[in-house]
Fold:
Amino acid sequence: MPRLPKPTDDSISPDFYELEREAIFKRAWLNVGRVEQLRKTGSYFTKNLNVANASIIVVRDRDGEVRAFHNVCRHRGNKLVWNDFPREDTEGFARQFVCKYHGWRYGLDGTLNYVQQESEFFNLDKGCHGLVPVHCEVWAGFIFVNLAKEPEQSLRDFLGPMITALEGYPFEQMTERFGYRTEVHANWKLFMDAFAEFYHAPVLHAKQSRERYAAAGQKLGFEAPYYRIEGPHRLVSTAGVRNWEIGEDAVKSSEVLTRGGLFGPWDKPELGDMPPGVNPGRCSPWGLDSFQVFPNFVILIWSQGWYLTYHYWPTSYNTHVFDGNVYFLPARNARERVAHEMTAVTFKEFALQDGNTLEATQLALETRAVGRFHLNDQEVLLRHAHKVVADWVDEYQIANGERG
Amino acid sequence: MTPLPAEFADLEAFADKWCLASEPERYTARLSSSMHDLQAFYDAMEPRAAAAIDYCDRYPLDGMPEAVVNLMHLIYSFVNVSFPVEVWLQPRVPDSGSAYFTCFLEPTP
Structure:
């Protein structure tokens, strides 16, 4: 793996972005949501995957299976499911999908059930005109799709043992959710870079922590104790000296009152035994595991018994939509709910700081004034992230005869 | 007027402005306030927050009377303004000029 330089062209080139769309986003398994979003038969949501030039419907069918289809009517190609604004996603509950244009109807399994004035068509075989399916598999309640004609790997093989060892974590019980979204004016990989190292934490977030905690971080270098790379995926774990353990002058007065903050609720819920995939480095004390699932999905498990997901959805070579979701066990009382509020608000304050730095990086990279950048040991996951992207693009180009 | 439980009548001056049901409303109120106003709200809430949380804790989350829900919303606003008052010393996250982060989903209450 190259120690340096970090390739910069992969974040500022429209041509490279077009390659990523084909080589990565139309070939890799992409997480599009969780099964809790589809509570009963007929529950559905749509997902625009502009990066893969697709829009899909994800639905729970009559057998309880989660299925995905291209969101395109077979008659004249109208987008099948949308509300008010065709570019926006929607969700809801349906017994069948009815096209707004000419009324063709599809069952939850994609079957074309009804054609308006069918006799006016010539030899139309309804059996051959169901919705076009998209490969869809569920792991640990996470719904993934793959837009390839035939995926090169099953979802399980793609995820590999480091990720599948998280099975058994009570994701399905953590249904109290805060959802955040923003459009970032930077290449999608730059935000992944930001959350792949903790070198920035004591500097960028210095003000956010009480002086004593920030000073402790800068002195120690805030180094993460455990990194792991497996296939295209990555993990970094942090040691967990939580700010309230340092002393009262390391916490905000509102944190003391609400018993919540960056690390989560101070009072950890009882989750039972953890699966072996959680804190695999056996860090003690342990703060969090940040699993970066290739290409654009992060599962971040905190030792205080809650988790985050991040998605980075590219919209152009220098813009992407970032989705951040915060998940807790449902609060049982006002006290727990207030601790969750403090945790979620703190997450947003940190993310706002991270987000704006990215636009500044993108602007500076695009000047091409500097072409070589030095990465330190703590930034090992960045090196891997950019290398895997380059590898997938190379592989694709070779397979398609675009390169020898 | 936005009702609060009688025990928290001392916070009524802040209720109309800060008893807001959603994070986007609370965040918008924060950004459109002066530091003077944020500090005044914070100073009123900080000594009362522990009692307010205790009070709300007596009710089930799914069966809170309106005045208690309002008090919960007031506590959430206190959480939101704690950052400008305790950390940033300005309403906005520093250097977040063009950055935004829309909360599109949150639990109720």
Summary: Residues 18-88 of chain B form one domain. Strands of chain B lie at 102-105.
